[in-house]
Design a protein that fits this description.
The protein has 203 residues and is of the alpha+beta class. It is built from 7 helices and 4 strands; from the N terminus they run E-H-E-H-E-E-H-H-H-H-H. It has a 4-stranded mixed beta sheet with strand order 2-1-3-4.
């Protein structure tokens, strides 16, 4: 297998953190997004969507989308479980993963793409007003998440899961998207300090 990744992009980082939590090592190849290497013909043959990450399997097929790649490794290496255990827990982890992905990672990502100068090449036209709208939506979700974290150590329950990974990479991207996190979100701050101190966070 070969995992195509990118140093500073949030979605490839989700997979790297997931693999680090599993203790799984996979050969990786870095794609330079700033030089638009993901749009070159050789990579487009692997992934016509031109997105990172992409996992080339041993049979030559290419698996894309970060959560799909994580689910693949979850089945291969079920311990420690990062998608929950049992029908109910798995469903709730999936619910929170999607909530965080759409409510936080997507909004922060759009704010970043439509405001950061280095992202101008990625967008046909950056829309500052759209970026500001997404910042507001991200802050609304952070307040919602802070309230939930008042009574539990992780995004869902007592165990670290894929939902925490997604939330962590979103918050780390928030700095570059100019999403200012209110200091009164103390439960969020406690959670962030805890998950950021995990060795996998450096992946």
């Amino acid at each position: 297998m070969l995992l195509y990744t990118a140093a500073f992009a949030p979605n490839p980082r989700r997979v790297r953190i997931f693999l680090a939590e599993k203790g799984v090592s996979v050969p990786m190849k870095d794609i330079d997004l700033a030089r638009l290497e993901h749009r070159k013909d050789d990579f487009r043959k692997l992934n016509p969507m031109q997105t990172i990450p992409a996992l080339v399997l041993d049979d030559g097929e290419t698996l894309t989308e970060s959560v799909a790649i994580c689910r693949f490794f979850e089945r291969l290496h079920p311990e420690p479980p990062l998608f929950g255990v049992g029908a109910k827990e798995e469903a709730f982890v999936d619910m929170w993963q999607r909530r965080v992905e759409f409510g936080l990672l997507a909004t922060v990502g759009m704010a970043f793409r439509h405001s950061h100068p280095k992202m101008a090449l990625m967008e046909h036209r950056q829309l500052p007003e759209f970026a500001e709208l997404q910042r507001g939506r991200a802050l609304s979700f952070l307040r919602f998440l802070d309230a939930k974290l008042r009574s539990r150590p992780f995004v869902y329950g007592d165990a670290f899961t894929i939902a925490d990974i997604t939330a962590l990479v979103a918050l780390d991207l928030a700095l570059y998207a100019r999403v200012e996190i209110p200091p009164e979100l103390t439960h969020l701050a406690r959670w962030r300090e805890a998950v950021s101190s995990r060795p996998s966070a450096k992946a």
